[in-house]
Predict the structure.
Amino acid sequence: MIQFSNVFKRYENGHEALQNVSFHLPSGDMTFLTGHSGAGKSTLLKLMMRMEVATRGSVVIDGQQLSRLKPHHVPFLRRKIGVVFQDHQLLFDRTVFDNVALPLVIEGMDPREIGRRVRAALDKVGLLSKEKLSPIMLSGGEQQRVGIARAVVNKPPILLADEPTGNLDPQLSAEIMQLFRQFNAVGVTVMIATHDLELVQRMARRVMVLKDGAMIHDAPFKPQAATGGEG
Amino acid sequence: MSRDDSRQSGGNPGGKTGGKGGASYSERWGRQQPTKKRAPVKRTKRREPEAEISSRRGGNAQISRVDAQERLSSWKRHHRQMAIDSFRRMLKSPVASLMTWLVIAIALALPTGLYLFLNNAQLVSSNWDGAAQMSVYLKASVNDERGRDLTQELKLRQDVADAHFISQAQALEEFRTFSGFGDALKYLDDNPLPAVIVVRPAAASLGTSAVALQEHLMNQLKAMSDVDEVQLDLAWVKRLYSIMALGERAVTALALLLGVAVLLVVGNTIRLAIESRRQEIVVVKLVGGTNAFVRRPFLYTGIWYGLGGGVLAWLLINLALIWLAGPVHALASAYASDFELLGLGFTDSVLLLLCSTLLGWLGAWLAVGRHLGAIEPQ
Ligand SMILES: Nc1ncnc2c1ncn2[C@@H]1O[C@H](COP(=O)(O)OP(=O)(O)OP(=O)(O)O)[C@@H](O)[C@H]1O
Ligand SMILES: [Mg+2]
């Protein structure tokens, strides 16, 4: 589903954010991406979204070579990828409902179907009662969950999350992680960038570690942890 | 399309991992089955989108597979929504919008008003042109009888519409009654006024110039032995025509310039609108909005600005016409004419609104092309 081969990313200022990164994430897999601040986690996710373009190497998503992707195909790539952003990227001039509905509106879905889907997604993240509020009235954690609802509302085959538990207390973090497991259980390919190493340990999944833009560790499973315990 | 094929190859992850969770994607996500209690007619209508959605199970958004009709209706829905939404946004800041409308209206009303003025001037001058009379002054030696014969001869000519004879005595009488110098004539022994044949040239047939025709006639009349002098202010008519030709060019140039001004005004307004909705554009692009989708509200904003400006320009012009109607009527009756100002006809009005709308749309399109590309999620 996701294939990085010898990917380099150099920003305009000359900074080498990624160096020779290669990995393959099969369809339906779930992995964590960790590393110090500035290691290149967000950069890696942005390459998959085609928010940035690799300087060298190839990124293939769902059989599509991103370096050869024409600009007018980029929106359709992004519709396949649900993203929970580090900085939420919510719109404060409209309601929680409208924020979550956006990907469906863009796809041109029937309004009645949109209503059903959005409420189902909000229900999942426990915010059904707040659908009419503006995100600005919500706490950081609640905003994060609105972002999650929006990322999954159009049922994308790929889910990327950048620090999805950054603002959450341990209890909520665990619940959100549980949510991601559920998505993964129904076949969504999930990749989560996070600092929260303890959480990563508990989840017992493949872990990739970036250091200064290089992939220094890529372990398929944590052997000491029980697999599938929470599933 | 090849894009579809590649999507299908990656498709249905729910099926591949069935062992993990058991429940299908749709069940876990509480997708509701088509509601059973719907009226039968509605149900058949609803089926297509449902089928389309299930075909996208696992989230492989196979947009191209969406039934063409469903795509069209969702496209129309979005157009409708954006049209209404962008109009509402305008009404939210009524003063700013009104000012933009006014600027556009003035820029449009100026050339349109001048165009109307020219139209009216042409109408007036074409009346003069048709009624252009030649005064054929006869030599003093020609007596009244010969003068009447000559008048009959002239009447028979193809290029003469009408001719009538004014004898020396009649000329004197007319002068006495109309000039107010009647008393002065008492001191003259002789009648100084010549006999005149007033000739009205035939209207020019299509494709021939009235001026050339009249000039030809005049030269022939002048060559006659009984004729002393022929008067026709051809030079004046010629001058009027060249002034009007100049006026037409000036109006065209002004219309072009002010059209560019409208483009700039709309473009700048749209640029500000884009700037103020930057975050929204970024988010829409992040969740897969196409350029057309992002552009749409701004294009509608431009259309509304153009149309609003056009309507306002139309109002301005008609107000000005009403305001001018009185004085024009007074002036016309002073010349014993029943001339009335020619207003914007139906075709002209439609054309004005069409042009203004088009200008608004084009201005928005240019601004969007310039500024939207620069806004990319970072
Ligand atoms: N647009 C940019 N231009 C130049 N340098 C950038 C840009 N974006 C990121 N960088 C640099 O690239 C490096 C990797 O950044 P990135 O955001 O990927 O880190 P990260 O692993 O996500 O960090 P964090 O955990 O703090 O979010 C950093 O050193 C950063 O300064
Ligand atoms: Mg980051």
